[in-house]
Amino acid sequence: MMQGRFSRWILALVAAAPMAAMAQVADPSRWQLNMGRGVTATSQNAYEAHMLALWICLAIGLVVFIAMGYAMFAFRKSKGAVAAKWSHHTGLEVLWTVIPVILLVIMAWPATSKLIAMYDTRESAMTVKVTGYQWMWKYDYLGEDVSITSRLDREHDRIRQAGERPDPAAHPYYLLEVDNELVVPVDTKIRFVITADDVIHSWWVPALGWKQDAVPGIVNEAWAEIREPGVYRGQCAELCGKDHGFMPIVVRAVPKDEYATWLASMKTVDTGVPTDPSLVPEGGDGNAPRSIDPDMIEDIQQGEEPTAPQAPAAASADASSAA
Ligand SMILES: [Cu+2]
To answer: How far, in Å, from the CA of 242 to the mean position of ligand 1?
Structure first.
């Protein structure tokens, strides 16, 4: 019996090994209790502010509970304790007002400077405009004449709509994979301008350390300078309709030269199909429409397969995977 359980454990470990190998930096780990550090200065700042507040709370909790425990045990009724009769103690009142104020200042001072840094989008090297749609994202690389739309991976969409059970080995990032990833360079200050076309969405990639609402008619700003190459995943974080849970975000941060090659490949032809297929980042089919056609948005909103006139290959590939 013990042996059977032991071999089951070994089997589970062996089966989990390829999954662990596939895990990306900044992915949450099993039983992770604390927040992640992320891969930007903003996320590191958030982590530090969080840890400071956490340790202060822990210290307060310890002091309060130890004092309570001691009072309840040492001055219990069975030992003949009688409650003291006093209602006012100026010294104590000053103390329990001054100490929290000092603690709040200790926390607010660094938090404020971090918040100011978080909203300082000056001196950014490039700008990406993010537009939320029901239910996908559009990314415009401003000044580069490159636009991509990013939708839930077609196979994942088919599995969920068919009500099938996804195979975790084949789809380790089930519902967190897109057709066209947002490719960005590392070690580059990227300014994001974020808006929406229909309802309020929210663009959220936890590893970047921020979440920004995408509101129709309003342009919000944020920035990120990603330190490590990798794939960072997120989701829409504002309830935006029936498919709110199915508009994931995938950011692929690559070295600067790789990004330059990718950007050049995206500019080459009007159809949006790169000339060299090997340049297409993994996961993307390279057939992103160059611009959003209003009819296409309407098709997607009505649950139909979009007809993208500028990207015929993408439309036919979609049709075959959805069939
Ligand atoms: Cu949304």
So the answer is: 9
